[in-house]
From TrEMBL:
Domain BTB: 31-98
Keywords: Kelch repeat, Repeat
Chain segments annotated as coiled-coil in the UniProt record: none
This protein's record includes keyword Nucleotide-binding: no
Protein name: BTB domain-containing protein
Organism per entry: Chloebia gouldiae
SUPFAM superfamilies referenced in this protein's UniProt entry, alphabetically: Kelch motif, POZ domain
Family annotation (PANTHER family): KELCH PROTEIN (PTHR24412), KELCH REPEAT AND BTB DOMAIN-CONTAINING PROTEIN 12 (PTHR24412:SF491)
Amino acid sequence: MDRKAEEKRKQRHSLTLLEQVKRMKESTQIIDVVLVAEGEKFPCHKVVLAAFSAYFRAMFTCGLAECTQREVVLHDISAESVSVILHYVYSAELRLTSHNVQTVALAAFFMQMEEVCNMCQKYMLDHMDASNCVGIYYFANHIGAEDLCDQARKYMYQHFAEVSLQEEILEIEFQQLLTLIKSDDLNISREESILDLVIRWVKHSRESRLEHLVELLKQVRLVLVSPSFLVEARKRNTIILCNSECNDMFEEALKTIQLSSHPSLSLRYGMETTDLLLCIGNNSLGIRSRHGSYADASFCYAPATRKTYFISSPKYGEGLGCVCTGVVTEKNDIIVAGEASAVKMSRQRTRNIEIYRYHQRGNHFWHSLCSTQLRELYALGTAHNDLYVIGGQMKEKNQYLVTNCVEKYSMEQGTWRSTAPLPVPLACHVVVTVKDKLYVLGGWTPQMDLPDEEPDRLSNRTFRYDPGQDKWMERAPMKFSKYRFSSAVVNGEIYVLGKRKQIFNR
């Protein structure tokens, strides 16, 4: 019997055993223990529980009183979580939802079921957003899940401007909020967000929290708040107006702001920005460095500090085999497009454009965002958090044809759809974004009015796309025709980088 046949036989054997044990549970056959949680009873088998849980294995084999008891009462564990865990034990299906995942994780932690705990943590990580990251952080900290706790904290700090507006953060305890707003690492651009959060937190449970107002306000960097916001906040909130110490703090901040244009307090993380130049998509033939092969690391250069940073490369592991183009979205997501690696391509039936995004949650890494029909020499653009694959060369009936088709990918909905095509077919062009509109420049386009043997024509034309109207409009042409060139936007002006430098004023 060959190896694959043996593996299939063992798999069938395991599935048969699991199915038979599940049927015995459902028909209450050979039941030798009943778990009780919140008054609800769950008939099951000791041997099955012991196989999956170190807690039950110790209970049923170490001479404890529960060895001879028919019923085992589980204190402080919800009936729903017991039901979910037993269903997993007998069927290999863990039915997690955003409402039950923490109670299931607690029950699994109590029962010493490491695999279920890990699955719960992965679920929470995969479904983490601004509305639940605070709860996940303090839950993970409570049960000692260090990796989940660390990644939830990073997510919470990175997205604090949005997190501070959620209802969940109003439920945390005083010391937890105090520790949060002390931090320099909060990614917020305006101190007004912190002041607003403190006021909302106190008003959420005014009677019990009013005593903490002064101590919390001491952690708000009031001199970084705009004077108009300070005046308005005091005017609109009686909790500040009625407290002489709070009034004094506001008055002192207003005087300090008036006397000095340069606050002495340190800024928070999100109040300072650093421009980076990204160099992504190296081949594996470069020299090695302390960061390993150039295929494993991509470079980021900060012109202001003249420092070089390294991030993982999308070519690492089973990522992209090559990187053709990339963009940075308005949310500072780094996105690149290219073809799959040889390992990944060997498992695919068709070649596609593979699009990867740099994952900023927890440990930074690249992950596959989406894919679309293969084309070459295309351009990648972004506007309103949507991606656009524009033009390029496609193979149809063993012939390469330059196309004018444009495909849009919604990163919020995870869907593709076609948009208005380019006015002309283009390849080797560039695309940039200015004020949420796409500008396509240069490239080459097939001769439409000359015989096939005529060479392709270079373009100096400029087209602007308005996503709101789904419409292209021609703008002023470049002075010179160009293709295979680079472009960038600085202060609302488009710079074309190639053999000749020129500026196009929008």
